[in-house]
Specification:
328 residues, alpha+beta, Rossmann fold, D-amino Acid Aminotransferase, Chain A, domain 1, Dna Ligase, domain 1, 3 domains, seven-stranded mixed sheet, cytoplasm, ATP binding, ATP-grasp, EC 6.3.2.4
C-alpha cells in the first residue's frame, strides 16, 4: 500500500517563491509508484490543498488532515520543502512532533538553532580544522552599534539578517559611509543582524544527508559569481553565477572538507539533507564556515540536485531515501 506524503510548501517570508519552485520539482520527480503526494500550501492563517479541479481544501489543524469528497485524508509523513519560516525555523517541526508525524528535515531544536547564523557559529567554531570569521551579533540598529562595528571589526564586512535566507537583505560594506544603509536593509528583514569580516577565498556549497545507516557527503559545488557576492540575483538569475560540480579542490582539500562537514552534521544533530556553505581562504586554504541551510532548494538547477547527479544517483531515488529515513 502506498504511503501518503504531505509535501509542504509556501511560507511566511520572501523565500516562499523559491519554496514553490522547489515543491513543483519534488512533486514532479517523486516516486508515484510508492507514494501518494498531496501538496499543502502554508501561508499565514491559510493552510490548504488545491485539488486537480482547482478546489481549495482547508487543512484541519487539529490533526493535519484533509477531507476530500467526504473522505478524511491523513498522512504517513511530511516532505518539508518550505524555506524560511515556519518550515525551516523549527515551528512546523514542533507542531508535527506534537502530532506524532515524521518529517524529512531536522528536528525543532536543531532547526531553530541553525536558523540563527550567530548561534550556529558559536556551536561549531571549536570543531577541528574549522574556522569562522570574526563577527558581531546585533540586536539593535543604533549609532552606538555602528561605532562598535568600526572599532572592533575590519572592513570589508558582510551584513546579514541573522535568520534570513536566499541572501535577502544582505550587503557587502567596503566603506564606513555604506554601513548605515546596509544595517537598515538587514534590520528591515530581521530583529537580529550578523556583521562579519570578509574572508577572501573560493566559495563552495556542499550537501550532506543521512540515509541507509550512513552519512553521505556529496561533491561540493564551487560558486564563481560575477557579482560582488552570492546574493539573491546571483542565486536565482541565469548566467550570473558559474556553478562547478564537483568544485575544484585538491585531494587533501576534498578529504579535509569531508571530515569537517561530517562533524558539523553530527554536532548540530542534523537529519535529512542539509547544505553547508564555506570558503577556502586564498592565502592559507583554511576552511571558513559560512552557514548551514536545513531546507535546501530542490529546483532543477539547485546545488543539491547537481551534487546528487554528480555521484550517479537519480534525484528521484534521493527523495525516496529521504522519505524512508524519516520512518526509521
Amino acid at each position: 500500500m502506498k504511503k501518503r506524503i504531505a509535501l509542504i510548501t509556501g511560507g511566511f517570508t520572501g523565500e516562499h517563491v523559491v519554496s514553490l519552485k522547489s515543491a513543483a520539482v519534488v512533486e514532479r520527480t517523486i516516486d508515484r509508484d510508492s507514494y501518494d503526494v498531496f501538496k499543502i500550501l502554508i501561508y499565514p492563517n491559510d493552510w490548504y490543498h488545491e485539488t486537480s479541479s482547482g478546489e481549495k481544501i482547508l487543512v484541519n489543524l487539529n490533526d493535519f488532515s484533509l477531507t476530500i469528497e467526504g473522505e478524511k485524508i491523513t498522512f504517513d509523513g511530511i516532505f518539508n520543502i518550505l524555506h524560511g519560516s515556519p518550515g525551516e525555523d523549527g515551528k512546523l517541526a514542533g507542531y508535527f512532533d506534537m502530532l506524532g508525524l515524521p518529517y524529512t528535515t531536522c528536528d525543532a531544536l536543531t532547526s531553530a538553532i541553525t536558523m540563527n547564523k550567530a548561534y550556529t557559529k558559536a556551536i561549531v567554531k571549536d570543531i577541528e580544522e574549522l574556522y569562522v570569521a570574526r563577527s558581531l551579533q546585533l540586536f539593535k540598529n543604533s549609532e552606538e552599534n555602528r561605532e562598535k562595528i568600526l572599532k572592533e571589526l575590519r572592513l570589508p564586512l558582510f551584513i546579514k539578517p541573522n535568520s534570513g535566507g536566499s541572501s535577502i537583505g544582505m550587503s557587502k560594506v567596503k566603506e564606513p559611509n555604506e554601513l548605515k544603509d546596509a544595517l537598515d536593509r538587514a534590520f528591515a528583514e530581521d530583529s537580529q543582524v550578523l556583521v562579519e569580516e570578509f574572508v577572501s577565498g573560493r566559495e563552495f556549497s556542499i550537501g550532506v544527508y543521512h540515509a541507509k545507516g550512513k552519512t553521505t557527503v556529496l561533491p561540493a559545488t564551487e560558486i564563481v559569481s560575477s557579482k560582488e557576492f552570492f546574493d539573491f540575483e546571483a542565486k536565482y538569475s541565469a548566467g550570473v553565477t558559474e556553478e562547478i560540480t564537483p568544485g575544484r579542490m585538491s585531494e587533501e582539500e576534498v578529504e579535509r572538507v569531508k571530515r569537517i562537514i561530517e562533524k558539523v552534521y553530527l554536532r548540530l544533530n542534523c537529519k535529512g539533507a542539509v547544505r553547508i556553505d564555506y570558503f577556502l581562504e586564498h592565502e592559507t586554504g583554511k576552511f571558513y564556515f559560512i552557514e548551514i541551510n536545513t531546507v535546501p532548494g530542490q529546483t532543477e538547477t539547485s546545488l543539491i540536485s547537481q551534487q546528487v547527479r554528480a555521484i550517479g544517483m537519480e534525484v528521484r531515488d534521493f527523495y525516496t531515501e529521504l522519505i524512508e529515513e524519516m520512518f526509521l
